[in-house]
Amino acid sequence: MRYVTEPTYKRYITRGLKRFDERNTGFSRGAVEGDKYTLMHERSIANIERLVPGKTILEHATWVAGRTTDYVLRKSKLAREAAPIYNDRYRLKSPDPAAMTRIIKSVARWIGADLVGIARLNPLWIYTNWGLHNVTYTEAAEEGDPIEVPGEYNMVIVMAHEMDYQVVRNTPNVEPETDIGYSKCAWSAASLATFISELGYRAIPAVNEIGLSIPMAVDAGLGEMGRHGQLITREFGPRVRISKVLTDLPLVPDPPVDMGVQKFCETCKLCAKYCPSRALMLEERTDEAWDSSNSPGMLKWPIRAMRCFDWWVKNGTHCTVCIRVCPWNKPNNILHRLVRAFAERNILTRLIVRMDQLLGYGRQAKPEDTGQDPSVMTRDGR
Questions:
Q1: SS (H, E, C) the chain
Q2: Is the pLDDT of residue 141 over 80?
Q3: CA torsion, points 68, 70, 75, 81, in degrees to nearest 10?
Q4: Are 376 and 56 in contact (CB under 8 A)?
Q5: Bridge partner list, 2
Q6: Where are the domains of the chain?
Q7: Quick check: 159 and 113 in contact, CB under 8 A?
Q8: Residue predicted with more confidence, 77 or 201
Q9: Cβ distance 189 to 142 under 8 Å?
Q10: Which among 261, 183, 179 is positioned nearest to 217, based on CA atoms?
Q11: Under 8 Å between Cβ of 79 and 210
């Protein structure tokens, strides 16, 4: 891995980029076009009734419980306004940015972040308008309300939260690591924002809302975006969820990184081959958009978001197959750190991908291997 002066995506920008409207994300469109969230949960209940292995009432309850804190954050004004300040009498005077950066990273890890990076906030990554996905649970905003972040919020602290390797292997059966990951994100972002606010500075916590998390994470040096549209980190591959805090606290930004992901993804293509919804591209990059859920102007592999969401509905739960089969998705041990050194330098890439399949790293775990028992629900639903 090399530290670089500019994020690797800069080399793929082909025209002027514009801010994105959150109403066009797959999540918001899914909430409007046929209320796919309701349909997905109805399918989940049907799976329980049919005693589908890996999708029993125990897995369903774990999935929904895992998302609780994320839902609570979205219900509050905290996600749309600065964190409440209880210490309104004192302010940390003239903090040293380098020292403050070390403190913030230490506090972020203590709160629960597995990775943390800092970047200057690029206004292009802030959504233009609120989408339905992130206002369904709150009275603090209406769908379509404009999002304007004041200019003094010039820094963003980005945190990545590891998802358990073994649990992710369950997908496309119920895989609650995504959901508990978002609750960890909400807890960490809200808690870090409170810490900053008590120092006398402004802070806005967010998970998926407010702006595009992945380019912010790339800017903060946490990794690069892969073919599957996910952030790929050095330590955990794409097996992370992202939270962020926008702030005016003086901090030192981290340099972006070049991990060799772009070249690797050009060769690999496993995520696209195994995507059950065929939402991922096998073709070469394009700077055009498939539909309103993509932004044009940068060479990348745009995602067919509604194909992905329609598969969620059919599956009765979300899906992380693209994460499961990604060769960067490995336990962070000595063996895989050694292989990663070759992957980062694009040495023996085809062999790495082939060995990944032969050794079965991307295979789905069998329900009996994870102790799932469909008999825990009786036929009368109790």
A1: CEECCCCHHHHHECCCCCCCCHHHCHHHHHHHCCCHHHHHHHHHHHHHHCCCCCCCHHHHHHHHHHCHHHHHHHHCHHHCCCCCCCCCCCCCCCCCHHHHHHHHHHHHHHHCCCEEEEEECCHHHECCECCHHHCCCCCCCCCCCECCCCCCCCEEEEEEEECCHHHHCCCCCCCCHHHHHHHHHHHHHHHHHHHHHHCCCCEEEECCCCECHHHHHHHCCCEEECCCCCEEECCCECCEEEEEEEECCCCCCCCCEECCHHHHHHHHCHHHHHCCCCCCCCCCCECCCCCCCCCCCECECCCCHHHHHHHHHHHCCCCCHHHHHCCCCCCCCHHHHHHHHHHHCCCCHHHHHHHHHHCCCCCCCCHHHCCCCHHHCCCCCC
A2: no
A3: 150
A4: yes
A5: 258
A6: 2-363
A7: yes
A8: 201
A9: no
A10: 261
A11: yes
How confident is residue 86, by pLDDT bands cut at 50, 70 and 90? low
* Residue of 67, 353, 359 lying closest to 185 (CA atoms): 67
Contacts of 146 (CB under 8 A, 6+ apart): 128, 129, 130
User: b vs e for 295-307, b when ≥16 Cβ sit within 10 Å of the residue's Cβ?
Assistant: bbebebbbbbbbb
- State what percent of residues in the chain have pLDDT above 70: 90
Cα–Cα dist 373/367, whole Å: 8
How many residues comprise the chain? 382
Neighbour-count burial for 13-45, b at 16+ CB within 10 Å, e otherwise: eeeebebbbbbbbbbbbbbeeeebbebbbebbe
Record the pTM.
Answer: 0.87
149 φ/ψ angles, rounded to the nearest 5 degrees: -90, 120
Q: Nearest Cα to 296, choosing from 4, 10, 13, 30?
A: 13
